[in-house]
Write a structure and sequence with these properties.
alpha+beta; 7-stranded mixed sheet; 5-stranded mixed sheet; 36% helix
Length: 492
Amino acid sequence: MGNKITSRKEDYSKWYNDIVINADLAENSEVRGCMVIKPYGFSIWELMKKELDQMFKDTGHQNAYFPLFVPKSLFEAEEKNAEGFAKECAIVTHYRLKNDPKKKGKLILDPESKLEEELIVRPTSEAVIWKTYKKWIQSYRDLPILINQWANVVRWEMRTRLFLRTSEFLWQEGHTAHSTKDEAMSECLLINNIYAEFAEKFMAMPVLKGSKSEAERFAGAEETLCIEALMQDGKALQAGTSHFLGQNFAKAFDVKFADKSGKLDFVWATSWGVSTRLMGALIMTHSDDSGLVLPPNLAPIQVIIIPMIKSEESKNKIEKLTNEIFSDLKSNGIRVKIDSRENFSLGYKLNDYELKGVPIRLVVGEKEIENDEYEIFSRDDLQKLKSNSNNISKNIINSLDEVQNRMLSKAKKRLNDNTHQVSSYDKFKEIIENQGGFVSCGWDGDSKTEESIKKETKATIRCIVENLDNKKLKCIYSGNPAKHKVIFAKSY
């Protein structure tokens, strides 16, 4: 095939990019910093979307859709939010082009089409949604509002990487309104737990749950909860966030409700989201030097059956058996495909499906039928399980469960092996610089301490895992009593 994957040890960044390109997941587009998600990559995202969407709906959330454009005055209404996203904004100033009188065939902005108010292409939708909620909310009877939208957003990034950081990306963003602070905080916790459950159950990716420090918090939030995953190169990846917005947006947009006694109060808010960045997390958590490795729960093709037909005599037997296995697996809800293309060699097919991370592979040929012995190949550990034709469907279904569990166990072990408890700053620096991984330690809660560590080591607080009220744990940097137990790491 000629698709050479750079090894992880040689160049981790190139290894990642090689997999994205060669496994047919995505490619760079004509617009700098934007990507084309190819059908195979998009089908993985669709499976993620389907599972998450159901988890949201099972907890009472509904989908809606809000405009792509946000009037600049709305965007400016919540100052911290506007300030936080100002450097990443794309702005629409005109609504029409016209022919350039000086250069034939060229177009220029029509000065007569200048907008009265500039429009921001949404980097996030809080502003436009809270302006809408003002119309929807009058009393406690209108609450809670539990809305999610699947959309695209634009954050004008200077340094981009496919899936991990692009100027335009796909995501879901939840925006909820509540009558009490406790209810809003419970919503934040619920969603963060949903994200963690999804990561573990479907992505086979264990995560740490916690809250962000003030410096790492979402602009306009009073509290940000998060899930953090550890990639194979020892760097952290923020996989999802859930924000308690307090009454900040309600005050910015004057969204009040009358409680049961008729008293007016500002609404309490949350917002939360995961994006196509999860695709990057999936690739970097499980893949190897042969290509993509997919957990069965998110694999577009869970089982590939390859008939190996060498003669007309064996053709009917092979096709009959492959069709039987296909029907059996399909009726059990398995995403299965038969590749009977004659214009590609067996070697090409084996390499292609290995590269694309298909969890289970089965080759059916004359020899297999004669001996009634078949090899069920598992992509994650490259091992083969022997089976006869009577038990083949059952063994394949069992193998899929085993692959999913094995991938999670392997990722959990890597997370545990690369989480280091430290009590000295020298040891902290040594691990961050030479080993990578998560470093668990005390922090005094001072933003200056946090900034100094970041400046000296490039490591940031990924999450606060515990708030401390005892004086036993000391801050790794200042030596003062620790207010929090935190996880530091270098990150994507």
